[in-house]
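seq as requested:
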Amino acid sequence: MTPRMDNPSLVVPGALQPLLDLTEVIGKVGVPRTTLDLVRLRVSEINGRTYTFPDDPQQAEKIDERLGRVAGWRTESCFDDAERSALEMAEAVTLMTDPQDMASDEVWEKSAAYYTDEQLGALLMHIGLVNFWNRVNVATRQEDAAWR
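struct tokens:
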């Protein structure tokens, strides 16, 4: 599919840097990078944003092999309880099956057991930011993204 336009974050003057700055801040509060990556991929899967992974074996070995299993996180044994709680939160916030209570008390308490308020806040902002990027990219029919 041909993109409808260049990426809006590049078209709108001054838009990209604040988004990159927020990403940097989120990455500094102690939520493991691997967890943020798992969440980014799961949210993207839900939103229909496709990532491509490198074919080159040297590049591929640098990527968490669990990424290919993230859609089945509920039944895959390779995810720890903290990662599972983050993925459950990501699904609840992204799917918004109940906008009045998108993250039930049960989902919230599971995540709060593993993350401080600062980390949980960063996790929620990460989920929101990934949803933002996904929706902009899907709406404008951007090319599949290469996983970094």
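The two ends are 22 Å apart (CA to CA).
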